Amino acid sequence: MSTVTAQETPPGADLEHQAEFDAKVAADQRIEPRDWMPEAYRRTLVRQVSQHAHSEIIGMQPEGDWIASAPSLRRKAILLAKVQDEAGHGLYLYAAAETLGVDRADLTERLIEGRQKYSSIFNYPSLTFADVGVIGWLVDGAAICNQVPLCRSSFGPYSRAMVRICKEESFHQRQGYELLMRMMEGTEGQRRMVQDAVDRWWWPSLMMFGPPDAESPNTRQSMAWRIKRDTNDDLRQKFVDMSVPQAEKLGVTLPDPELAWNGERGHYDFGEPDWVEFKQVVSGAGPKNAERVARRRAAHEKGAWVREAATAYARKHQSAEEATV
Ligand SMILES: [Fe+2]
Ligand SMILES: [Fe+2]
């Protein structure tokens, strides 16, 4: 770890501050916004937290598409609550990013101009209501694997936001699994819908953990800074180990012929995701990239009057307060 930190220390940096920062991180204490931090640490966090925030907000779209046609009042209420939770996650995370000195309006601009990325998973279409269940089970399940270790991330506002987010993600995962259980108890057609959704979402879910460790250049530094606590491949393995027994209980087949228990390793072996597809989707050429960003842009433009009204209201009250001083 010391070599990595040394490489990141720019010449002439405040060595005393750097030593204090390193000691805090090594002791698993939290770095707070007012603390000194290396510029590269701040930049890495801005990138990670804002991309995470964008993912929560864009992630409202695939399921949001199904709110109007949910098959019952109960399903509609659950889905509404879940999609609203995702909006809340985005807001906590934009707020955490703002403590690093960036502006939320600017981050939104970067998203709608395609200058910042978000999770590749949300660029796939949700074709049937079974997708709502599979997104909850697999996509929120993968999010939990990714996010639980982030509750111990070294940056205070990020780690605290993650605690609350993880509690809500666990509800998301359960509602998805419960929906699939009910569908599997239904008709043959419903069971086929579930299997079809599993076939389409399994591989993209594995890609949510990012590229293999050997091709993830930022992982080593992020782990040294304790922003990230586990490698992409370790998290992917954890997700597979968790999902296989759940799939068996549900009665669905995971679409991977290489999936098999390896007694020696004490883990499931599994096949390689299509990394060419992953790169295409991340770089904007996925089935739904253009539509997701266009809808986010339209919503942002449609909401301009709310931001203007809120600013005018704040200004009015500020001048009233100043007048009374
Ligand atoms: Fe979320
Ligand atoms: Fe979620």
Automatic annotation (TrEMBL):
EC number(s) from the headed UniProt entry = 1.14.13.149
Show the Pfam families listed in the entry: PaaA_PaaC
Listed InterPro entries = Aromatic_CoA_ox/epox, Ferritin-like, Ferritin-like_SF, PaaA, PaaA_PaaC
Xref: SUPFAM superfamilies: Ferritin-like
UniProt keyword annotations, A-Z: Oxidoreductase
GO MF annotation, one? phenylacetyl-CoA 1,2-epoxidase activity
What is the name listed in the Swiss-Prot or TrEMBL entry for this protein?
Answer: 1,2-phenylacetyl-CoA epoxidase subunit A
Q: What is the originating organism of this protein?
A: Streptomonospora nanhaiensis
